[in-house]
Amino acid sequence: MKKHFFIICGCLFFAVLYAITSMADPFVTDVTNRLAEPSQQNLLGTDHLGRDIFSRLLLAGGITVGLSTAIVLVTATIGVLLGTMSGFVYRRLEPIVTKVTDATIIFPDTVLAIVLAGVLGPSIQSLVLAISLIKWTSYTRLVHTLVLQESTKGHVLAARVNGLTKPKIALRHVLPAVCPHVLVVMSLDLGKVILLISAFSFIGLGVQLPFPEWGGMISEGRHYLVTNPMLVFWPALCIVLTIIGSTRLSAKLTRHFQI
Amino acid sequence: MKRFVARKSLEWGLAFLVFTFFSFLLLRLVPGDPVLYLLKVDELNVDVAEIDRLREELGFTAPVWVQYVNWLTQVLQLNLGNSLITGQPVTQLFMDNYAATFELAAGGIFVAIALAVPFGTISAFRPKSVSAKLATGLSVVGSSVPSFLIGLILMYVFAVSLQWFPVMGRNGWDSLVLPSLTLGIAVGCVYIRLIRSTLLDVMASDYVAMARVRGIRSRTVLIRYITRAALPPVISMFGVSVASLMGGVVVLEVLFAYPGVGKLMVDSVLRRDFPVLQGYLVFTTCLVASINLVTNGMLRLLQPHLYRKDVSR
Amino acid sequence: MLLIDHLSIKQGERLLLQDVSLAIERNEWVCLVGASGSGKSLLVKSILQMLPATLQSTGSIFWNDQEIEAASNTCSIYGCEIGYIPQQYTTSFAPFLTMDAHIRDLFASHDQAYDEDRIRAIMAEVHLSEELLYRYPGELSGGQLQRFCLLLASILQPKLIIADEITNALDVLTARQVTEWLKAMIGQTSSMLWVSHDLAEAMTYADHILVMKDGRIVDAGDREHLLTSTDPYTQSLLQAAPVLKRKDRLEHVITR
Question: How many domains does chain C have?
Answer without folding.
Answer: 1
